[in-house]
């Protein structure tokens, strides 16, 4: 048996028009956010899942090079406020995003930069290959945070939480990346948003305090007809989880950092 001979390449032979994307889908589950009141310390809520999937047909790779195809995601806007009556508000914030220093922050798992993850989210093709490669890449994302019933900077455990409001936006790209040259071929751009609005009566018994308000179902993701470029901060550290800060903003007095960035 003869082996595939690698062709010396000055530049990649892989072009955008030679990569075929079939069965592209992006949805948010049509179910409401679930609020959990099991713990006397925290309220938890679980949002529906954002899901994206695509079948890719990658052309033969004539060179001795490696391509990775998969999903890159960035957070482009975040409001996450937990109100404690007229005492104050705690908020998870991305300072650079809030202040307009950057347009987006990576939403990688913190290990697989620039990719959202490295299981179903990416596929690696090592050239040279003699035949086209067909595969599926998929990802899903949702929120499942904990919010303290009591004021987060207080020694007291008295439940005072009255309102949770969250509004977060993301851009998700389907990308083919040359692992050696770092050449990126953008295949698709998706925009999606998740909103949560929960009112809480802290005087009621645990299990009956909270109520989901506003729209029950989320808006469905938008598959853009044009390609949007990826901002540099969407490709590398820090990711959103490591960059976020928990602030306490009392009605009176200066704000405090409760949990600093990692």
UniProtKB/TrEMBL annotation:
<dbReference type="InterPro" id="IPR029638">
    <property type="entry name" value="FAM78"/>
</dbReference>
<protein>
    <submittedName>
        <fullName>Protein FAM78B-like</fullName>
    </submittedName>
</protein>
